[in-house]
Write a structure and sequence with these properties.
The structure holds two protein chains of two kinds. Chain A is mainly α. Helices cover about 75% and strands about 0% of the residues of chain A. Chain A contains 13 helices and no strands. In chain A, α9 packs antiparallel against α11 and α11 packs antiparallel against α13. The longest helix of chain B has 30 residues. Classes of the chains: A mainly alpha, B alpha+beta. At the A-B interface, α2, α3, α5, α7 and α8 of A face α1, α8, α14, β16 and α16 of B.
Chain lengths: ~325, ~525
């Protein structure tokens, strides 16, 4: 009950954040020089054609009119029409969103599956060979830029070995999953390095804590100690970090999607900004804001599961 | 240390789980549709094959009248055909749906004799009504980007299904060239009435072209199927063509090498060069009408002086620019009119640097120590950026400091549209093989500030341009355009330097890939062999 009340409160708090973001992105887009009509015309700008196009796209209306039109439509769930694609924004963003979300999920799963065991291994074997090797790998992961990693993976696994497709994301669920392996790993690459280092240092710290020694002297099995005592406590700071990385992955998807030719929201956003497709940019940014808020909320809820000392909403609620 | 062993086992378990997931995924991947792009070719039936073309941006409007941009206009040769067309590799006009035509003595009326028994891709007959409607819709759209191609048409009459009579307002040398524009390729009126004007943008026309739009997932891919009613037996050779969006230049090339796509469009010169030694792919460089030049804004305090402009002209070296930026794929240019056009005055040499002479000119103009100007640049384009660097170095030799003002593409358009620039690298490519349209942009000051020269052309030259527009005799017309090009050279408002081809790359098993000098895809005979 208390959790529910807390979630409700947090959801209500999202509304002012969304409103402020909406106004900010609306104004920021209009501060950019040029408009959708100019972007459409490209190199040959005939003033008559330009004027007609501006009229058609509603760019001659005052800023205030444009804003109220957008907000009223938004309140009715209408995100407007893309001037580039000439189709409703809602459908466009939704179909692109599923690619990006699935990409992020693959990347997060890879991060967790790869980074947690390696980080634990390095922490537990501090100063020994496994630790040195893992730390070296992590350093490498931090140093390599993701676009380079992506291209290298494409060349090796896509072109030379021809195991994975080099572009697109197929048509069936199986193909979607298969084509997300390389981009997912590329996206996870830097996060894996960060999480490994984080888990390692947490494990090193927790291993020597009094309660771990106590558990050991109590005669608990090594398994119980490593999962219930060490890992559980080591994971609390990692959770915060991971949630920040998830949000970072969304912005990182902009680069990855372009390299791998994935029809995700990142590549859509880049194209929409260049084309001054205001309605699409506004919708994409709002979606990013919502995801960020939801991920933060989920992280806070996850804390309570990991550490029962943490209570949601405090006592005053 | 017991717990560590367990944790390692735990780790191994996790690893095994992941490996299992990966191998499962590989099974799923193999079980799905194969990633090769030539599936079905093994059946021995060539028409059952598929070709995939990767390009940087998707189309966004398939209405031939309201569309703008190469990503749209290049597609129309697949769907519609007109009375006449341009040749595959030059600006010559050839018969298309019209087998022959007669021209009236005053040069104003063209009577086209269209081939018998033409059918649209949906199987319906091409009627007089379709021809008339197609022309009249284009002629009524005065806001269209392509209006200049039909502006001179007074009326179109179609007494029967195989006769189209086009009457122009005044006799013009460019009439046939203008009729090669895609927007007057015959379209089914019934189809337009059925889908409506708004949806026409997405559905595209029903025409007589070799292909029919099959599926279009915006921003991702569009596929075309062979037109079953195509007028030429046995064509097109390939059953299906997919245009896939691959925004990243490097990825497009990698995909070509990996065999996921058969053709990569818009390949940077640097990547083309890397493909020269590739076992499976080759550069495909086709002549284009694209010319690059530097426009000098004469409203700038320094550039208003003709001597200063001449000095910059003589400080520029076209050969050096293309040597350093194009890897040998581009050629030097001396005129704003493309050398693919018969109206290009080839007697004007591309600029060759003469630093001493240029310095002397600057000194005479009163700037012995040079000055500072900014060069407006479209950012994010490696070719433009490297050209700007070379120009910066060349002009520095005579003491002129160039500040590169690189802007994102729409911001760049905005700056051009307000003439907020000193010098700018401009490019032009023709949509129909005739200089009229370019000249209109230069001579009609309101259209583009004299193509960003900031100069109102003098009345005498305007008159020469008017004569050139209507002159029917090719030789006389060449002379008139030569006069204009020499005047541009004398004023040094434009410094032409480079003629740029269409740069694509293809898999070696692809044959029949044609991109016309106007950029249109001609894919009747494109095929992929095993």
């Amino acid at each position: 009950m208390e959790t529910l009340r807390y979630v409700l409160k947090r959801v209500l708090q999202m509304i002012p954040v969304l409103i402020v973001s909406a106004i900010a992105i609306f104004l920021l887009m209009r501060l950019l020089p040029g408009d959708a009509a100019l972007a459409t015309l490209g190199d040959k700008i005939d003033p008559e054609v330009y004027a007609a196009l501006r009229e058609e796209m509603g760019l001659n209306q005052s800023l205030w009119t444009q804003f109220t039109v957008w907000v009223f439509a938004l309140a009715q769930g209408d995100l407007g029409t893309s001037v580039i694609y000439k189709i409703p924004v809602a459908g466009l963003v939704a179909s692109r969103m599923q690619v990006t979300v699935l990409l992020a999920v693959v990347a997060v799963v890879m991060t967790v599956v790869i980074a947690l065991p390696l980080g634990y291994l390095a922490g537990a074997k501090k100063g020994k060979l496994p630790d040195v090797v893992v730390r070296l790998l992590a350093l490498l992961g931090l140093a390599a830029p993701s676009f380079w990693v992506g291209l290298m993976l494409l060349i090796v696994f896509g072109v030379r070995l021809a195991i994975f497709p080099t572009s697109g994301w197929g048509k069936t669920m199986g193909e979607h999953f298969w084509s997300l392996i390389l981009p997912g790993f590329t996206l996870a690459f830097a996060s894996i390095a960060v999480i490994i280092r984080n888990v390692r240092s947490n494990v090193v710290e927790v291993r020597n804590a009094d309660y771990v020694s106590f558990g050991r002297s109590k005669g608990l099995s090594a398994w119980a100690i490593s999962t219930g005592y060490i890992l559980r406590n080591a994971l609390i700071p990692t959770t915060t970090l991971l949630s920040m990385r998830i949000i970072g992955m969304l912005s990182g998807s902009v680069v990855i999607e372009n390299i791998f030719g994935l029809p995700g929201i990142g590549s859509l956003l880049v194209q929409a900004v260049t084309g001054r497709d205001y309605a699409v940019v506004q919708a994409c940014v709002l979606v990013f804001v919502i995801i960020t808020l939801v991920v933060n909320l989920l992280t806070d809820i996850l804390y309570t599961t990991l550490d029962h000392r943490i209570k949601l909403g405090g006592n005053e609620a | 240390m017991d717990h560590l062993q367990l944790s390692r086992r735990n780790f191994l378990k996790g690893g095994a789980g992941f490996a299992a997931a990966a191998s499962l995924a590989s099974l799923v991947g193999c079980g799905g549709e194969p990633v090769t792009s030539s599936d079905g070719a093994g059946s021995g039936d060539q028409a059952a094959s598929k070709i995939v073309l990767g390009r940087p941006v998707d189309s966004n409007n398939l209405d031939p009248v309201t569309c703008i941009g190469n990503e749209n206009i290049f597609m129309f040769n697949l769907i519609v055909e007109g009375l006449v067309k341009t040749a595959d590799d030059s600006g010559d006009i050839e018969p298309c749906l019209a087998e022959k035509w007669d021209v009236s003595d005053d040069g104003r009326t063209y009577t086209f004799h269209v081939m018998e028994g033409l059918k649209f891709s949906d199987g319906s007959d091409v009627t007089a009504e379709d021809w008339k409607w197609t022309f009249e819709r284009a002629m009524a759209a005065t806001d269209s980007h392509w209006y200049s191609c039909v502006e001179n048409i007074e009326s179109v009459e179609c007494p029967d299904d195989t006769t189209v009579i086009v009457t122009t307002k005044e006799a013009a040398a460019s009439t046939l060239a203008n009729l090669s524009i895609f927007e007057v390729g015959v379209q089914s009126k019934a189809h337009f009435d059925e889908v409506g004007e708004e949806e026409y943008v997405n559905a595209g026309p029903v025409g007589t072209g070799p292909y029919v739009l099959d599926e279009w997932v915006k921003g991702e891919y569009m596929t075309f199927k062979a037109n079953p009613n195509y007028r030429e037996e046995g064509l097109p050779l390939t059953e299906e063509i997919e245009f896939r969006v691959v925004a990243d230049d490097n990825s497009r090339v990698i995909q070509l090498q990996g065999g996921d796509i058969d053709v990569a469009d818009s390949v940077p010169f640097a990547s083309l060069q890397q493909l020269e030694g590739d076992a499976n792919c080759s550069p495909q460089v086709d002549p284009a009408t694209m010319v690059y030049w530097i426009s000098l804004n004469t409203q700038n305090e320094y550039l208003s002086n003709p001597q200063v402009r001449e000095a910059l002209y003589q400080a520029t070296d076209a050969q050096e620019i293309i040597d350093m930026t194009s890897y040998g794929y581009a050629e030097t240019a001396g005129s704003v009119i493309s050398a693919t056009s018969e109206y290009c005055d080839t007697s004007i040499e591309p600029p060759v640097a003469d630093v001493e002479a240029a310095k002397k000119l600057l000194e005479e103009a009163g700037y012995p120590d040079g000055f500072e100007i900014s060069l407006l640049l479209r950012g994010g384009n490696a070719l433009y950026e490297s050209i700007a660097q070379v120009i910066l170095d060349q002009w520095k030799k005579i003491g002129v400091t160039v500040n590169i003002d690189s802007r994102e593409s729409t911001a760049y358009s905005q700056a051009r549209n307000e003439l907020d620039l000193d010098v700018v690298i401009s490019g032009w490519s023709d949509d129909v093989p005739d200089p009229t349209s370019l000249m209109q942009f230069i001579f009609d000051y309101d259209a583009a500030f004299g193509y960003y020269s900031g100069m109102q052309q003098p009345e005498e030259l305007q008159e020469v341009n008017r004569q050139a527009t209507v002159e029917l005799d090719v030789e006389k017309r060449k002379e008139l355009y030569a006069q204009i090009q020499q005047a541009f050279r004398e004023e040094a408002i434009f410094i032409p330097f480079m003629s740029v081809p269409w740069a694509s790359a293809i898999r070696n098993n692809v044959t029949g890939y044609i991109q016309t000098p106007m950029g249109n895809y001609r894919f009747q005979e494109i095929a992929v062999t095993e």
